[in-house]
Amino acid sequence: MKKPTKPMKLSDLALSEEQADVALMEPQATAEPEAAEAPPPADDPLNLEAVMRIPVTIQVVLGSASMQVANLMKLRRGAVVPLDHRVGEPVDVVVNGRIVARGEVVIVEDDNSRFGVSLTEIVGVQAKFEE
């Protein structure tokens, strides 16, 4: 589609009442649309290329706790907030707000100062295919 060389006004596109009546009375030519390139098959890996590059946020949830604001305001350095998960229970792996897996907290082999998660369960995959 060519771009106009000068800016157009909406009034330039409007038809007069007489021109509109003539246009309605003339038979419309039905030109066949240009043959569009067929979309690649659904199982074509190229369909997912753009999706695979989308960044997602991954969080590992050790647990959570609820408390009143008054108790929250009393927290000081060194205070311990007990969580609802117990030691040894799997942690939740959350992607964009949805639990996708569970796993065990581990120390990363290459860097002993970092934690990682060893996945033990993928959540919801079977349920998606069964629906």
Automatic annotation (TrEMBL):
Start and end residues of each Flagellar motor switch protein FliN-like C-terminal domain: 50-123
Pfam families: FliMN_C
Region annotated Disordered, chain positions: 21-44
PANTHER family: FLAGELLAR MOTOR SWITCH PROTEIN FLIN, PTHR43484
Main location: membrane
Alphabetical keyword list: Bacterial flagellum, Cell membrane, Cell projection, Chemotaxis, Cilium, Flagellar rotation, Flagellum, Membrane
Residue ranges, compositional bias (Low complexity): 26-37
UniProt name for this protein: Flagellar motor switch protein FliN
InterPro entries per UniProt: FliN, FliN-like_C, FliN/MopA/SpaO, FliN_T3SS_HrcQb, SpoA-like_sf
Function comment: FliN is one of three proteins (FliG, FliN, FliM) that form the rotor-mounted switch complex (C ring), located at the base of the basal body. This complex interacts with the CheY and CheZ chemotaxis proteins, in addition to contacting components of the motor that determine the direction of flagellar rotation.
Family under the similarity heading: Belongs to the FliN/MopA/SpaO family.
